[in-house]
Amino acid sequence: MKIFDVRNDSNNIQSLNLVNQNQNSLSFSTFECEARAHDWKGLEVYIENPKIKVKNFYGFFLGTLVFDSQALEIFQTIFEMCGEILPLQVERGPKLYLLNILDCRNGLNYETTEWSYYKDGSKGRIMKFGFHPERVINESSIFKISEVAKTRIFTYSGIKDAEDEFYGLYHKHNLTGLVFEEVYSSEL
Fold first, then answer.
1. Contact 23, 40 (CB under 8 A)
2. Less crowded by CB within 10 Å, the N or C end of the chain?
3. Bridge-based pairing state of the strands 178-185 and 2-8
4. Is the pTM of this model over 0.90?
5. pLDDT means over runs of 10, the chain (188 residues)
6. What backbone torsions phi and psi does residue 69 show, to the nearest 5 degrees?
């Protein structure tokens, strides 16, 4: 089993911004495994850097995935198992979708995780992740952990058939816009 930190390929993707900046509050733009469909209105966004070649995934709020209709077609079942799919409308452009991940796992192994520490001895940021593999396995293969739910998205591979895992499908269909950084490996 391998666990990957899923991030936008920020130097090579189009980034989105809200047309109506009044909607951009910290509480509105924070996604920490809490449902948002009940108060979500189809947001209108614009592309900040339109000269960058279009990819399947876009940059937007931390802790979310924003994607096009091709990615929706490939991943809809997986995405629906781990969260909610929320609509976005690009100004003079295509409809896009935002995945709000609701599957938050108690999977961080505090014994094997390496932390940075503040001068007062309290834990800072995670330098190297340790996981309880059996705690992060889920139906969709996409998850968050509460310690970094605002900013990080994880996926695993090597448990199911590659066609049933996010990582495997992404690579099989040669999709673009994401980077997968391996942060953990286990013989599970």
1. no
2. C
3. antiparallel
4. yes
5. 97 92 69 91 87 95 96 98 95 94 97 96 95 96 96 97 96 98 92
6. -70, -30
